[in-house]
Every structure is written in structure tokens, then in C-alpha cells.
Amino acid sequence: MENLEPESRHSSRQGRIALTIILSVLVIDQIIKIMVKTGMSLGESIDITSWFKILFVENNGMAFGMEIIGKLFLSLFRIGAIGFFIWYLIKILDKGFPKGYIVTVSFVIAGAVGNLLDCMFYGLIFTESTPFKVAAMTPLGDGYAPFLYGKVVDMFYFPLWTWPDWMPLVGGDIFFSPVFNFADSCITCGVIVLLLFYTKIVNMGLHYRNPDEED
After folding, report:
1. 96-135 residue pLDDT tens
2. How large is the angle between the packed helices 4-39 and 99-117, nearest 10 degrees?
3. SS3 breakdown of the chain: % helix, strand, coil, rounded to 5?
């Protein structure tokens, strides 16, 4: 029993870290999205620098505006995937996983939840955004789309440079054209960190054991 008490404190501390990260990301993500949704018309752009713009777009699909599968299926898939990752996070909190790994998984979960909230509720609480009209908040259920059919708000655009016209295939195209949001960046950065630094732990799954847990 004496060995379980420090482990329990460790799990509780990691749990607080994970919850703080998830809630912080959600608050930041939703503040940015609501400010853009209610302050800009669809397609409106604000130049921050020559290579960074705030460009208001909406999408029905996955990260960076990709649209591959049906909206309802995508929303249900997101719910299932988020449920799995939350279950996974709860499972690893008491197994001695590195704090950096817990932090990274928390960022991925928070980003996924952030975009899911758009799909779940934005259609219910906002009027439709158009190039000629800024959206406004509306009583629940009087918005532009039913539950799970809301559109994801994107705004960060980095047209870093345009390829020279003489280059084959990409001539005249912008190097980085996707428009994304804060939640997308949390997911993408989290996945990259997992692949670069925690591949072994990911492959081991719940069988991972911290080599220092006995110290």
C-alpha cells in the first residue's frame, strides 16, 4: 500500500496537467473562432504581414479544409475517435508514462474536441456567414444548421511565397495554401511530436512501463 500512494499522487498531478491543457486549448480556440465568426464576413481577410493573414473561411471536412467524406459520418467519427483518446488518456495516467507524452496526447485531444464543438453547436447558435453578412448569435436551435452539421471556422493563412511561373507543376501556386485554426495546429503539432519523439511508446501502447518508475 505504501508504494501506491506516490503513484496515486503522480497520476493525480498528471491528470491536472492534462485537464488544464485541454481546457486552456478549448477556451483559446473558441474565443478566436467566435471573434472571427461574429466579427468578419465569409472570405474577409486581414493582412497581418505579407506572409500571414487572418482569412475567414468555413469547411465541412477535416483539418486544413479537406473535404473527403460525408458531414454526419465525419462528426460521428470524430466523436468515436475523441472518446477513444479520452479513454486512452485516462488509462495511461497511472502507468508512469512521461509527462511530455501526457502533454502531447492532451493537445491532440483538445484540438479534436475544439473542432467537434464547431460541428455540434455552431449551426445551432449562429446565423449563416456569407460574403455580405457577418454572422450573429441566435437562440439555440435557430441557427443555420442542425446538430452535428455545423461548419468548422478556420482563419490562419500563411501564403509564405508563390512559386515562380516557370517551375513545372507548381508554377504560380502558393507554397502553403491551407487555412487552419488553433485546434488544427494543436492536433498537427501533437501528432508530429508523437511521431518524432514517442514512436516507441505509441507502438507499445498500454504495455509501456517507465524504466524509472521503481526509483
Report:
1. 789 999 999 999 999 999 999 999 999 999 999 999 999 9
2. 30
3. 55, 15, 35
Residues that are catalytic = 154, 184
Whether residue 113 contacts residue 26, with contact meaning beta carbons closer than 8 Å, is answered with: yes
Per the structure block, which three cell numbers stand in for 16? 491536472
Amino acid present at 59: N
- Sequence-separated (6 or more) residues with CB below 8 Å from residue 12: none
- What does each C-alpha distance from 134 to 31, 67, 69, 126, 131 come to in angstroms? 16, 24, 28, 10, 8
Task: Confirm if 177 and 152 have CB atoms less than 8 A apart.
Answer: no
| Residue 114: all three cell numbers together | 475544439
Q: Taking the domains of the chain in order of start, what are their residue ranges?
A: 4-206
CB atoms within 10 A of CB 135: 25
Q: How confident is the model at residue 66 (pLDDT cuts 50, 70, 90)?
A: low
- Beta-carbon contacts of 215 under 8 Å, excluding residues fewer than 6 positions away, are none
Cα radius of gyration (the chain): 20
Predicted TM-score of the model (pTM): 0.86
Residue type at 176 in one-letter notation: F
* Rounded Cα gap, residues 90 and 79, in angstroms: 17
Reported as a single tens digit per residue, the pLDDT across 136-176 is 999 999 999 999 999 999 999 999 767 677 777 766 677 67
